[in-house]
Write a structure and sequence with these properties.
Elements: E1 2-4, H1 14-19, H2 26-31, E2 40-44, H3 47-50, E3 59-66, E4 69-76, E5 79-86, E6 90-104, E7 109-122, E8 126-131, H4 136-143, E9 152-156, E10 162-163, H5 166-174
Parallel strand pairs: 6-9, 6-10
Antiparallel strand pairs: 1-5, 2-3, 2-8, 3-4, 4-5, 6-7, 7-8
């Protein structure tokens, strides 16, 4: 893992782009099902970055694939920070799905959706992220790319599905 220094405009330096094998072209991004992940919630793992985060502050991250690695961009206190992993330094990318039972209040139908916990492990560190239910399928698709397949592990928790009580809250808020 390498903590990257960004240009003043928040972009990667050319030397770092070359260090991670270069960016994909527009057509390669289209064939590879996109240019990165949507915003995911950063939980922790990199001490240098964790020390900057204020108590209770939510930090979001995006993961961008490069030809020879992954770069994780973090928005901390309205400042962009970046951490890079070369593919040869990755040891494991694991996504654990947790089932949530949701109830459609209009049709009175129950469905199962997933939220997730993503852990990216390098040789000397790991980063942990929460994946929201609305983004879960997109993250799963991103991590299923052929170049990441040898590192990617996917599991579904065998715990009972969590209950989603948002329909109760929305019912109360809808009456206000």
């Amino acid at each position: 893992m390498k903590i990257l220094k960004l240009n003043n405009d928040g972009t990667l330096r050319q030397s770092d782009i070359l260090h991670f094998g270069g960016r994909y072209s527009f057509w390669e991004k289209l064939r590879g099902k996109g240019s990165g992940t949507p915003k995911i919630k950063y939980i922790g793992g990199v001490k240098v970055l964790d020390d900057i985060i204020l108590n209770g502050q939510t930090t979001y991250a995006n993961i961008e694939p490069f030809k020879g690695g992954l770069v994780v961009y973090l928005n901390i206190n309205n400042t962009i920070k970046a951490v890079g992993f070369k593919l040869c330094d990755l040891s494991d990318i694991s996504l654990t799905a947790y089932r949530i039972e949701m109830k459609d209040r209009y049709r009175n139908k129950k469905t199962i959706v997933h939220r997730g916990k993503l852990i990216i492990q390098g040789n000397n560190t790991s980063m942990e992220f929460d994946i929201y239910t609305s983004l879960f399928k997109r993250i799963l698709l991103f991590l299923s790319q052929p170049k990441l397949k040898s590192y990617f592990r996917y599991a579904v928790s065998l715990n009972k599905p969590e209950k989603d009580y948002a329909h109760l809250t929305m019912g109360v808020l809808g009456q206000i």
